[in-house]
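Chain A, query sequence.
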Amino acid sequence: MRSPFARMFRESPFKRLLEHAEIIKSGGKAFRTAMVCYLDGNCDEFEKLHLKVTAIESDADRVKRNIRGHLPRGLLMPVDKFLFLSYLRVQDKVMDALQDTLHWLSFRTTHVPDPLVDDLLLLVDKVLEVVDHVPLMVREAIRYFRSLSAQDRDRVKGIIRTLRQKEFESDQIERKLKSDIFLHTVSDPISTFHLIRLIEFMGTISDNGENAGDMMRAMIAR
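Chain A, predicted structure.
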């Protein structure tokens, strides 16, 4: 029979948190493929790619439930459990935003004017830079919680600053795109609405990534 003391030193849930973040990163890669397909206008694989992202989101939810279900009362953690679970919820919203963006696109086939395509792809890549930094941030945070060194803490803070910068850059592209959409789709109000909301959905991806960074900053605060 295991003693209560032994249960206090079970495997850290941060390992599963990193697994969850890596799943989100893989969802970002699939998301980009789906977006490129949609913007091509002649790609018949969009719905298949959409379903792939939905499946990845289900995997992320499975890991999230596993993390929540395996935090026994006596487990020692380097941060408050409520703060840890709050971070997990925000991190999971990044994956939800990827899926929600493709859900929105799937409701209608909208022709995207050529002058908008390059900036839309630029926005896709910029929000995915935010997504890609999430597992990097978690990995470095794990290093910090093991060492508690100032150098490792500064490394995590540097990644958080990068997340904020990437989110700011995505906002700039988002504002330009909204203006350009009104310019190029003025005769088609339904397409205008569909594309404007698409930009807003993509904005929530980077917003949630930045929020994850802010929550991580709270976790490493002294």
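Residues 1-10 have pLDDT under 50 and may be disordered. The chain has one domain: 9-220.
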